[in-house]
Specification:
single chain; 7-stranded mixed sheet
Length: 560
């Protein structure tokens, strides 16, 4: 799907059409931003690299005009990860909380070529996005105060070169990022000498909907079944078996797979030996250029967060770019991309390294101690919750940035993702996902608020927002002028907001809670956010949709 360059200058150049770049193109294009997406290769990748899409990533795709519905058919409805110790004994099954808190399954296997294909095909819905494959960025010619001049080459070394001006450049071009190199941004961290063999197989007998981490120190192994007979195997290699970057011999592949299945060369979709990195770029922004995904950070795969971290980058940055382009925010908002994303990216990298050392250790004494500690913890309710709900994962809370953590009720929600229960919406009490009511922009939820409370808040200079009345205690939702109503459908909305009656919850476009406040403190919240906003606007509400049946996912496909 390659279009000619639009007559209007693109606002944003995205370099790299992997999952992060494609997601960014959808997030911007669904908001009407003019995007040029370029990819050095002739098509999307055929390599099944990333294999897990989490609930937060699916929620981000949902925000791009319901893109999650196109992705669900290529996913497996995942149930987490099962960990095994020495001798193959089960240690625990990490399932998460199991309540689909963000509105989607927790952890979901998929094949990256399928994901990239779907994301690329769905770009046809977005007339403001143009895609050029076999096109590479050759130079960031000049950064001006209001634009960046870039140079692009189409085809081979003798292909035509053109220069154009864009407002922003997003480097989503992977670990060997051209954008990062042109900006001379170093990465800090370390690479690991351990070599792993990754084998993607076809016609596999595994049908489990969870990943399996076998922590036998003699040979640590990861197995992740996928859809339609696909299965990923990862083996830690011993010295001399195969070097990183060297094509593995089929004899070695057969030897390692023998305990699990027979294999023919035709059933090996991909086999590669490689080592891991734990790296973070020194800065994620340089003027009007930004780094996302592997261009910004690289991590071992043991936490399953490489691709998901890139999607998280896109979710954090793209709405901010659209706010600035629309004149609703100033440049200071874009500085919060690094401020908000760096701490979490660092924490996820560190977790990935720790999991590799503990779960995939080759030290028998360390493995024995690991198994003992895990079994002991599983005999206590707090220990069981900590492990099975994966509470060891880094807190996603934003502590500094475009948020206003005021003292008072609900402060603990600020900087965290707003949960997404299903709600009853509008006069027909339609069962709806919460985000589908909130829309793509800012949203302001009044919890049992009166008309007088709303009048006070709308004079506080808060960002333009969809105004939502939250009705608690089994009351029916109803719309008011300029506001839409929602009510509890299954107990989750009431549980979330019961203690906040009379308060307002301001939610950013990326579904992070920006502030919680009482009407008398709305002015303080507005003043704090005006550090970023170009001008205050009043709340608006979209028309209530006609009654429609409940949205249901394709039952044949979901995530790990």
């Amino acid at each position: 799907m390659t279009h000619p360059l639009p007559a209007a200058r693109p606002d944003v150049l995205i370099v790299g059409a992997g999952p992060t770049g494609l997601t960014a193109a959808h997030l911007l294009g669904s908001r009407g931003v003019r995007v040029l997406l370029v990819e050095r290769n002739a098509t999307t990748s055929n390599d099944a690299k990333a294999i897990s899409l989490d609930d937060e990533s699916l929620r981000t795709l949902q925000s791009a005009d319901g893109l999650d519905e196109a992705v669900y058919p290529i996913l497996v409805p995942g149930t987490g990860t099962k960990y095994f110790g020495i001798g193959g004994r089960t240690l625990l099954h990490a399932r998460g909380t199991g309540d689909q808190r963000l509105g989607h399954p927790f952890k979901n296997p998929f094949a990256q070529p399928d994901l990239e294909r779907v994301l690329r095909e769905q770009l046809r819905r977005l007339p403001s996005v143009d895609v050029r494959f076999d096109t590479r960025l050759t130079s960031l010619v000049t950064q001006h105060p209001d634009r960046v001049r870039v140079s692009l080459r189409t085809g081979g070394e003798d292909g035509p070169v053109e220069e154009l001006d864009v407002r922003y450049v997003l480097g989503c071009d992977g670990g060997r990022s051209t954008v990062r190199d042109l900006l001379s941004i170093p990465m800090q961290g370390r690479s690991f000498p351990d070599v792993w063999l990754v084998v993607d197989t076809l016609q596999d007998p595994h049908d489990q909907r969870y990943g399996m981490h076998h922590g036998d120190p003699e040979r640590p192994v990861v197995i992740v079944p996928g859809r339609d007979g696909r299965c990923r195997y990862e083996f830690r290699l011993k010295p001399g078996e195969c070097e990183a970057g060297t094509p593995p011999p089929i004899a070695l592949v057969r030897q390692l797979l023998e305990p699990y299945r027979e294999i023919t060369a035709e059933q090996v979709e991909r086999a590669v030996a490689y080592s891991f990195h734990a790296l973070l770029a020194d800065r994620l922004r340089d003027g009007r250029c930004f780094l996302l995904g592997d261009a910004a950070h690289m991590m071992p795969p043991f936490a399953g967060q490489g691709l998901n971290s890139g999607v998280r980058d896109a979710a954090n940055l793209c709405w901010k770019i659209e706010e600035v382009l629309a004149g609703r925010a100033g440049d200071a908002l874009l500085d919060t991309y690094d401020t908000e994303r760096r701490p979490h990216a660092r924490a996820v990298i560190d977790l990935s390294v720790r999991l590799g050392r503990i779960v995939m250790t080759t030290s028998r004494p360390r493995a024995l101690l690991r198994d003992l500690l895990v079994r002991t913890a599983m005999h206590t309710p707090p220990g069981r919750r900590y492990l099975t709900e994966m509470r060891y994962r880094p807190d996603t809370r934003v502590r500094t940035g475009a948020i206003v953590p005021l003292d008072g009720p609900g402060r603990e929600l600020v900087g965290t993702p707003l949960p997404q229960p299903r709600v009853l919406h509008g006069p027909h009490h339609r069962l709806t996902r919460l985000d589908d009511v909130l829309g793509q922009g800012w949203s302001l939820l009044g919890i049992g608020a009166s008309d007088a409370d709303w009048a006070t808040v709308t004079r506080a200079g808060l960002p333009d927002a969809t105004a939502v009345d939250v009705f608690l205690d089994d009351r029916a939702p109803r719309d008011h002028a300029g506001r839409t109503g929602i009510a509890d459908a299954d107990g989750r909305l009431d549980a979330l907001f019961t203690e906040l009656t009379g308060c307002f919850v301001l939610v950013r476009p990326d579904r992070l809670v920006a502030a919680v406040f009482t009407p008398d403190r709305a002015g303080l919240a507005g003043a704090e956010l005006r550090r970023f906003a170009a001008r205050p606007l009043t709340a608006t509400v979209p028309p209530t949709p006609d009654p429609a049946p409940e949205i249901r996912h394709d039952p044949t496909g979901v995530p790990r």
